[in-house]
Specification:
alpha/beta, Adenylosuccinate Synthetase, Chain A, domain 3, 2 domains, ten-stranded mixed beta sheet, four-stranded mixed beta sheet, 15 helices, 20% strand, globular
């Protein structure tokens, strides 16, 4: 089996967690390569629901799972997640990159003050990446060092003036914060030590020994810091290319790039959304698809499938195949349409707008598609080993229409949250 990179092909929340869980069964190593605790992956297994914010979904297969260099980590949250997973009867085979950056409480305070402008989760991820780029943040290797407390105090002094100036802390409060966090995070470091290693070397060894490595991305391509709907984006790269930088994927090793898309479109947070539905139509689709954020519980914005945006995401991330989730949800709603072109001021455009104000002016051009045949859970399960031409005609036509437009095949179809509610073509 080739190494595989799994990325979201929309604005995130496409169902990557479930698909990674399915693919992890045939993998030897599962690597998370970007983002932080804002990535909510929900996986159903044996009737139990697991919500992973840090740990790769492959944990449920007892695979070795890695948090790569490109991930930013809140140690308290990760340790809580490890404890919760362990208390449910599992033994996490987790490895953490020594080079991954650490989220501190002041990052969360900055995020709470500034992140609301674009609808972030407030978990301090953007400020952590910002200070990483400014070369003033600490990494996992710092909090596990013998002199961890001294390193933390020194690093916090480097950002003191900024935090006091912005009103995050007073001078006196900052002294208390600096001392308490140094002790607390050095304690986290002690607990981290058994998990920390050179993760890039693990990936290199696995790749060179023909083991299968699965790289798991967070968020979606349209939230990429460079190519997404800036400034309404996340603070890391969400493209498949980020697996090489943040996960240790090796150029030249055969690799498959799988994009995940819903059968419709959703978005959490602020930013332009050309095919967004409003009112009763939005409520019906949201309830049919249970569209609430795994991390925040916020209701997701919902809309028709935007093939124009999907094709853009496929091209910039080098996606070779698609997995489509929530196909069963479309059978529960009426008036199915897909967006096949963009107009601005009444004229069709031949590009995906690079700036949010222009994208907000877009008028989507829709194509009506036949209603999707509603199937019971048992009828869906009976199709588990079906080929595409054995699916109901309406589903065949929907898949074919999408494939023709985006010019790559749909190779996986998901019709529910459980592992067995998956058809692989």
């Amino acid at each position: 089996m080739k190494n595989t990179i799994v990325v979201g092909a929309q604005w995130g929340d496409e169902g990557k967690g479930k698909l990674v869980d399915v693919l992890a069964e045939q993998s030897d190593l599962v690597v998370r390569f970007n983002g932080g605790g804002n990535a909510g992956h929900t996986v159903m297994h044996n009737g139990e629901t697991y919500k992973f914010h840090y740990m790769p979904s492959g944990m449920l297969h007892n695979k070795t799972c890695i948090l790569g260099t490109g991930v930013v980590i809140n140690p308290k949250d990760l340790l809580d997640e490890i404890e919760s997973f362990t208390s449910s009867g599992h033994s996490p085979k987790l490895k953490i990159s020594a080079r991954a950056h650490i989220i501190f409480p002041h990052h969360q305070l900055i995020d709470a003050k500034e992140g609301g402008k674009i609808g972030t989760t407030g978990r301090g991820i953007g400020p952590t990446y910002s200070q990483k780029a400014s070369r003033i943040n600490l990494r996992v290797l710092d909090i596990i060092a013998d002199d961890a407390e001294a390193r933390i105090k020194t690093a916090l002094k480097d950002v003191k003036d900024m935090l006091v100036l912005e009103g995050i802390y007073s001078e006196d409060d900052y002294k208390v914060y600096c001392n308490s966090v140094a002790v607390e995070y050095a304690g986290f470091g002690e607990k981290f030590k058994p998990y920390v290693t050179d993760t890039e070397d693990l990936v290199r060894i696995a790749s060179n020994s023909a083991q299968a490595v699965l790289f798991e991305g967070a968020q979606g391509t349209l939230l990429d810091l460079n190519y997404g709907t800036y400034p309404f984006v996340t603070s890391s790269s969400t493209l498949a290319a980020a697996a090489f930088v943040g996960g240790g994927a090796i150029p030249g090793v055969p690799i498959r790039i799988l994009g995940i898309t819903k059968a419709y479109t959703t978005r959490v947070g602020e930013g332009p959304f050309p095919t967004e539905l409003e009112g009763e139509a939005a409520t019906n689709l949201r309830e049919a698809g249970h569209e609430y954020g795994a991390t925040t519980g916020r209701p997701r914005r919902v809309g028709h499938l935007d093939l124009y945006a999907l094709r853009y995401a496929i091209r910039i991330s080098g996606i070779q195949e698609l997995a489509m989730t929530k196909i069963d949800t479309l059978a529960l709603v009426s008036g199915i349409k897909v967006c096949t072109a963009y107009k601005i001021n009444g004229k069709e455009i031949d590009y995906f707008p690079a700036d949010a104000p222009t994208l907000a002016q877009v008028e989507p051009v829709y194509t009506d598609v036949p209603a999707i045949t509603e199937l019971s859970k048992e009828e869906w399960l009976a199709l588990r080993n079906a080929s595409k031409d054995q699916l109901p005609t309406s589903i065949q036509e929907y898949i074919k229409f999408i494939e023709d437009f985006v010019e790559i095949p749909i190779t996986i179809l998901s019709h529910g949250p459980e592992r067995n509610e998956t058809i692989v073509f």
